[in-house]
Amino acid sequence: MTYTTISKIARRWRVDRATARIALADAEIPTSDFHTSPRYHVGEILRKIENLPDDLHHEIDLETPLLRADELADHLGVTPQTVRNYGQAGRLHVVKLTKHTLRYMLPPMRKC
């Protein structure tokens, strides 16, 4: 079992620790009983908050940050509204952290 700290979660989601704690509490992800400082089960975070299937958990690099709409728009060369539209249409993977906090996963590069 892999566990992570609130600081690492906040860094991945590019939010402050308070927002990360709210997202974890809303998803009802408990802290580990095995550690003295609060740690959270990575599998539960990926499943409940990031909505990733179990078979992809081993492929996810937790050091890779999720992006805001404006950051992903710069990377893709489109507007932030286009990124939000793609997210609503299911063309991009959207992670809803709180009511007003969305993050996007960088789409995999296609091979020609």
Structure description:
Helix 4 (69-76) crosses helix 5 (80-89). The protein is built from five helices and four strands; from the N terminus they run βααβαααββ. The longest helix has 10 residues, at 17-26. A hairpin with a 2-residue loop joins strand 3 (94-98) and strand 4 (101-104). It has helices spanning 6-13, 17-26, 42-49, 69-76, 80-89; strands at 3-4, 40-41, 94-98, 101-104. The protein is α+β, with helices and mostly antiparallel strands and 112 residues long. A two-stranded antiparallel ribbon has the order 1-2. Strands 3-4 form a two-stranded antiparallel ribbon.
Write the layout of secondary structure elements.
Blueprint (H helix, E strand, L loop, with lengths): L2 E2 L1 H8 L3 H10 L13 E2 H8 L19 H8 L3 H10 L4 E5 L2 E4 L8
Helix pairs in contact: 1-2, 4-5
From the structure above, extract its key features:
alpha+beta; 5 helices; two-stranded antiparallel ribbon; 112 residues
Summarize the structure.
With 112 residues, the protein is of the alpha+beta class.
**Structural Rg:** 15 Å
Spell out the helices and strands N to C: EHHEHHHEE
Q: Tell me how many strands there are.
A: 4
Report strand %.
Answer: 5-15%
Overall helicity: 25-40%
Which sheet architecture does the biggest sheet show? 2 strands, antiparallel
- How many H/I helices? 5
Shape: elongated
Strand order of the largest sheet: 1-2
Which ranges are low-confidence, i.e. pLDDT below 50, for 5 or more consecutive residues?
none
SS-derived structural category:
alpha+beta
What is the terminal-to-terminal distance? 37 Å
How much is the average pLDDT? 90
